[in-house]
Structures are given as C-alpha cells and as structure tokens.
Amino acid sequence: MSFLISDAYANAAPAAAAGPSATGQIVMLLGFVVIFYFLLWRPQAKRQKEMRALVDGLQKGDEVVFAGGLLGRITKLEGDYAVVELTDSVEVKIQKAAVLASLPKGTLKSL
Asked: In what order do the strands lie in the sheet with 70-78?
C-alpha cells in the first residue's frame, strides 16, 4: 500500500534528555526565595511596622484620617478604640487600626 508514500524508519531511539542537575535546581529555588523576600515579605513587614508605630503613637488631640476618608481629632483613647470628634457635636468611636494617617496640628482648621 505504500504506492504513493514511502515508508519511514527510525534508525535508533533518541537518547533521553538529561534534566537539570540537583545543584542547579537548588540554586534556582534559592533565587526564587531571595526574589520573593525582597519583593513581597520585606516591604510588607516594613509597612506593618510603620502602621504599628502609628497606632501605638496615637494620643489625645491628634488629628487623624481614618478608613472611609473622614478626618477628625482624637478626644479619648479606650484600649483598641479611639473616640474621634468629627465636628463640635459629632463624635464617633473607631478602632485604632482604622487610622490611616496622622495629620499635622491645625490641618482641620485650614480645611
């Protein structure tokens, strides 16, 4: 039946390709760990450290921005919570962790 198509025969089985060496794999894995450390772990740890310092440094009278974009002045600290005065007659209780930034004194008056 091979009238129009000639038969093809393989001379020999190809040699199995050798995979990378064990030391090469370990070096590659260590390289990924180092890259992961410098791109993810280290910056995240730095942000957490700054946030913890901000929350621990809150005091009565500080002007802050908290989650939701509201601005106010801290009137009282109660454990993990702070009472923030938004206006002369409006006070809200927030978690300290919701504070995003501490503002310079007098910022609220200038707005």
From this structure: 91-95, 81-85, 70-78, 63-66, 99-103
Give the domains, in start order, of the chain with CATH numbers: 57-110 (2.30.30.140)
Between CA 25 and CA 32 the distance in angstroms is 11
Q: Which amino acid is at 101?
A: A
pLDDT per residue, tens digit, the chain (111 aa), is: 567 777 777 676 665 566 778 898 999 999 999 999 999 999 999 999 999 999 999 999 999 999 988 999 999 999 999 999 999 899 999 999 999 999 999 888 888
Q: Which tokens sit at 83?
A: 């009472």
- pTM for the whole thing? 0.67
